Amino acid sequence: MNKLVHSRGARLEALLSAPHSIVLGAFIVRIAYLGFAIGTRSPWLQPELHGFETVQIATSLATGKGFSSPLAVSSGPTAWLTPIFPYLLAGVFKVFGVATLGAEIAIKLLDCAFSSLVCAVLVAIGRRFSLPTVGILSAWFWAFLPMSAVVATFWVWDTSLSALCLTFLLWMTYKMSDCDNSAGWAGFGACWAFAALTNPALLAALPGLAGFSALTLRQKGGRAVRNGAIALLTFLACMSPWIIRNEIVFKGKVALRSNFALELWLGNNPQVADLWAPWLHPANDPKELKKFLQQGEVAYMHEKSALALQFIRTHPAETFQYSYLRFMTNWTGGDNYLNDLTTSLPLKFRINMLLNSALSLLAFAGIWLLYRTYRAAAFPFVWILLFYPLVYYITHPSPRYRSPIDPCLAFLAVYAVRRAAQRLWARDTDLFIAPATIEKARA
Predict the structure, then answer these.
(1) Which pTM does this prediction carry?
(2) How far apart, in Å, are the Cα atoms of 50 and each of 55, 105, 241?
(3) CA distance 112 to 161
């Protein structure tokens, strides 16, 4: 009887530890979120699709008007967004109809799949660190993390795909540090190009992660210079069609994406009260929309850049205050955390702030513990946490914007909890395998 129970327990443990099981579980959770919205005819279902510029550009593509018109009026070619997700959405529109309920369900099912696949990558990262338990638990944590499911089923943006890209690139960073194969490094460069054409904000992680891989490989006697050059050339080759298109269409005034100046101005102008001024967005303000149409995209963005930089130069105190509030919002979900918790905010918002803050604090503890144990190997995590959010401190934050690094936070948070449990219970787990032992095992 004991053997039978033990056998069943072992099979259950193996099933729950298998990446495909976790991915399936995460997908079921997200389908449940989406099914509830459909069953209750939630007001956030179509026609808006909660992805304004993305939906507008995809509509233009699907109706044969090219990559253009991000603001629901015909405005000509655009570089407001990079091409991967708008083209993906346009393909969905071609099959299911433009901005229909069927198209919304289809694209959100794809987002659910992207978000669920993150679980498999977290398991792989845990194995790279010889921390399989942490990888498995962080994958299950991500599977049930409310914000990860909401992002996949609420917004029609590149967010879930961006989270998958960044998490996969983090895993590749560690893999390439052991790889002296030219084809592998070419693939590394191609993956970075795909990520950049999905969400250019991910490029903030490129110098630190690619540099870590190359330097670590060099220390192990690999051909880091050659492989790094191959990765860079592949990256540029994959990026070049989009860049050349923009150089031709916008006469050398736009390389990758055009709307950063607008986002900077929306967060740095005299009408900002705390974080940013969304009512001034041309999608919300008829005057700004008229100006956008009259000036054209490039000239309009150039003007917004000049206005934002002028405000930053002449209002340093306000700029610092806004950046502080954005920092707090990014990591806690509230711009004034302690005061926000004691106000009359709805209970669900205060609960979300507590969960968000707990995740951030545990992740910060996790990165410190990871550094103390693994030293240089923790550098890619440190780089991502330091540099990815910087652009949102100077423009404006959103849970959707931070979501691509949330899988990293989940991994670090679980690592911190497991370390604390180990200290409390003094059990011999895989959490304290020394780096030297790991290197020996890999060799």
Answers:
(1) 0.92
(2) 8, 12, 29
(3) 9
Q: At 274, is the pLDDT very low, low, confident or very high (cuts 50, 70, 90)? A: confident
CA–CA separation, 157 and 154 (whole Å): 9
Q: What is the DSSP letter of 413?
A: H
Q: Give the model confidence (pLDDT) of 80-136 as tens digits.
A: 999 999 999 999 999 999 988 899 999 999 999 999 999 999 999 999 999 999 999
Which position has the token pair 């950049």?
A: 196
Cα 62 to Cα 58: distance, rounded to the nearest angstrom:
6
Distance of CA 62 to the CA centre of its chain: 26
Mean pLDDT within 285-293:
96
Choose among 50, 177, 221, 226: nearest CA to 438: 177
Q: Which of 345, 338, 332, 356 is nearest to 150 (CA)?
A: 356
Q: At what angle do helices 132-144 and 146-154 cross, to 10 degrees?
A: 50
Q: Each residue of 33-52: pLDDT tens digit? A: 988 877 666 655 655 566 78
Q: Which residues contact 210 (CB under 8 A, 6 or more apart)?
A: 173, 188, 192, 228, 231
Closest CA to 89 of 100, 76, 73, 79: 100
Token readout for 267 is 């967060």
Exposure of 406 in the CB half-sphere (CA atoms within 13 A)? 37
Q: What is the rounded (10 degree) CA torsion for 21, 27, 33, 35?
A: -110
Amino acid identity for residue 197 in this structure: L
Domain ranges of the chain: 2-442
